[in-house]
Amino acid sequence: MNYLAHLHLGGQDPEQLLGSLYGDFVKGALSGRFSVKTEEAIHLHRKIDAFTDSHAVVKRALDRFTITRRRYGGIALDMFFDHCLARDWDQYSETTLKEFSEKVYALLQSEPSLPEPLARVAPLIVTEDWFGAYRDFSMIGHGLDVISKRLSEPEQLRSAFEELTALYEPLSLDFAEFYPLLERFARLRLAEMQGAFILR
């Protein structure tokens, strides 16, 4: 899962939203680095990633890619699933995507001590409206092109967009099957965390 899904699934308190994003930018042990709620959200981010990577529906979706693309299929699929979530946002949220995005953007702009890797990219997230842009499928191609420039074999990831285009319908069905399962998993983990937080 990519940024938008983690934000949607990881709890809606400001500290939870930050932790949901931090999960892609903070590695290693956490003890005491952030607030309790933020660290819990980072742990949830990691659990969501593990659940996603091991799930049969996701493995089936990855198997749709050719062997040469499978190395980078996970990157392409993460971005495509965020596109599906943005495209179908009203099915999964009572808040509009615009309202949700603006809430996160305001939080990023007001937080004085973002982790350095996130601090570098946060202005682009806001000014380019990354979460709203996910609705435009062509932006996935642009995103893959940007990421590919950091890879040793950039052409394999760039060409993955052609496969996403060809696989648009079956991968959309994979998302529709998987995301409710992931929502349930995240809700259960959030409830467990909330119980632990109350006991502290």
TrEMBL record:
Recorded GO MF terms: [acyl-carrier-protein] phosphodiesterase activity
Keyword Lipid metabolism attached: yes
Keyword Lipid biosynthesis in annotation: yes
EC number in record: 3.1.4.14
A UniProt-annotated Pfam family: ACP_PD
Key words of the record: Fatty acid biosynthesis, Fatty acid metabolism, Hydrolase, Lipid biosynthesis, Lipid metabolism
GO biological process, one term: fatty acid biosynthetic process
Catalytic EC class: hydrolase
PANTHER family assigned: ACYL CARRIER PROTEIN PHOSPHODIESTERASE
Full protein name: Acyl carrier protein phosphodiesterase
Organism: Pseudomonas fluorescens
Name of the gene encoding the protein in the UniProt record: acpH_1
